[in-house]
């Protein structure tokens, strides 16, 4: 910011872990698409006399996330009760982790405007979700399906310096979580929630300003918009000699503004104390090693490999690895490229990457398909690319064919044959058509010969029209030039 203030932003992100059952009981953790209060039991509804049992899958998912976030995994970690009263919390407390979280001191590399930045991860810990309140007129209903669903809370260091950077961090985090297959990380569906906090300080200092926290954000875009708004709002307060109040702000999606909700609780208000019903959790080195060995190849590593192995640009590689299924599709396509043909492998990689990130992404978007839902295989895309390379079809025709491949699920060769789309490259045929066009348009030809060069394109257009776009453009151009020059020099 040029006016002398810089934002200092930290994020608190809650991620719903994709376990089969809840954090401390055997209830289905699906939480969506079920009748209210059908996925409950005495444990997650907080009945007296019941005991929680730790979900091992949730702990393993959390450890994997910690490792992927470059955290130190605690060998000894414990559970705590966070006490507060609210109708969606039947026990009157939430089981969480307070002073000994499962993972600490990590970092994530985030790229904003082509600049790499390291964002620190202060901690990541496990806790259980609360229920949901549904407001109907003058009363509220409680649905406890979600109560007890495992959450991973990830807290960043206040390293983020712009709304854009916060957005890029969230995008990167979502990619990581999806590579690990431990969460759908879908913010619109509540599987990921983000509460940013933001303060302003004179740029270049290490001061801490008064921060506000923003709640009720349900998309990455609203996080970015709310932080941008709050940056400007606090800046206006400070530059007019005012003081920022420590507040929890809400986000009004319609009006695009933040508004004060309530004063912020301090940690003390929750009266944290150790959970007496659960033993501390000891993470043995063998367990940690096993989970480390199960980690998939993470996006940054895949990206580096694409740059080295296939000569892709940083940008292209980043676009491909943003979705693990897309990265795999690209890699499978490269594996399906015929090795014996004399093709520059880097050029081939660039061509395939362009087809995927250009036309294919657009088509997938139009059809509402994810790459893994497509019927077209990577080898079939290579088949299409090879038809273009061999001159059998033009790039324009290939676009049409690709659309049909995605929608109908047929091979490029079959579609080209069935719809008679093959490009006309036959010299004799093209010569006949070009000669005919020149003969039929003596006026334009005369204008061209007297210096109006743009008419060459027009004549070319006539050939393409006659052949319904199937003529090989490079050959037509060469043929037309040859014939027109022959006319200029008075040859037949
Ligand atoms: Zn339950």
Derived from helix and strand composition plus strand pairing, the structural class reads alpha+beta
Bound ligands, named by name, code or SMILES: zinc ion
N-to-C CA distance: 71 Å
- The low-confidence runs, each spanning 5 or more residues with pLDDT under 50, are none
Overview of this protein structure:
The protein has 3 domains: 288 residues, no CATH class; 120 residues, no CATH class; 62 residues, Arc Repressor Mutant, subunit A. Helix content is 40%, strand content 20%. The protein contains 15 helices and 16 strands. It has a 9-stranded mixed sheet with strand order 2-6-7-10-1-11-12-13-14. Strands 5-4-15 form a 3-stranded antiparallel sheet, with no helix packed on it. Strands 3-16 form a two-stranded antiparallel ribbon. Strand 12, helix 3 and strand 13 form a beta-alpha-beta unit. Helix 2 runs antiparallel to helix 3, helix 8 packs across helix 10 and helix 12 crosses helix 15. It starts with a strand and ends with a helix. The structure holds zinc ion. Zinc ion (ZN) binds next to loops.
Keywords:
9-stranded mixed β-sheet, 492 residues, elongated, 3 domains, 40% helix, binds zinc ion, alpha+beta, 15 helices, Arc Repressor Mutant, subunit A, 3-stranded antiparallel β-sheet
